[in-house]
Give the backbone structure.
Amino acid sequence: MSKVVLITGTSTGVGLSLAVKMAEQGFKVFATMRNLAKAEKLKQQIIDKNLSIEILPLDVQDTQSIHDCVEKIISSVNRIDILINNAGAGFIKTTEHANEEEINWVTDVNYMGVVRCTKAVLPHMREAGSGHIINVTSVGGLVGQPFNEFYCAAKFAVEGYTESLATYIQPTFGIHFSLVEPGGISSEFANSVLQQIESTGGMKEDDYLPVLQKYISNAQSRAASDEGIYQSSEQVADVIISVAKNPQPPIRTRTSDWAESFTQLKTQADPTGIEQQKRVAQSIL
């Protein structure tokens, strides 16, 4: 029987590519998004490729929305084998410039959204004695970067959350946990970050301006170059699918050579995270 996968954030980018590719490869896909008005691209792919994908509403910031979606899937097919927490949002602003509402928002979307969705599916996976939760983070979940402190902090939180779950839920209940850590992605996600700067006040004339201008200029230059930094959504989706298909998946994996190089000082002793997981379990449990 086909494995049942629930994917968040499938209106664009990696989530859209994941839904299509996994359906093509025989998974039973439930593709979710906050705003179903943005489902047209996915609907067109379903028609063009004759795919079996069910689109459902799910807002990672709304516990009831998540509960309703999960219960609908369980009622329909009686299980969720894989949860891919893909929904997220970029955020570029200094600590001095960001207000508390913005900080709460980026933390809620990128971290609490993962917690809410994980909390909703865990009882069903635990009852089944199997499952796989894949959290899409970023190299920014391993390495802090300028002007990205709140985004990185939220992704760091997801990394710690996932590592902790893996130390006791995986060996006790047979549920695997994985982190997928892309570098740059050539998608609407990257474009939305620059749009977000403008929508939240743009670049202010202050002491930070020269550094921010340098940061943006370098980012645009890297995007225009061929240095292997930016991957397509399809390339990242392929890595996620390989993790989903792995019977003994890694705790963490990067999606490109550039991402490996960028995070090497943090990951070289234990690239997959499996040894650290074992050591923690042996030391504490």
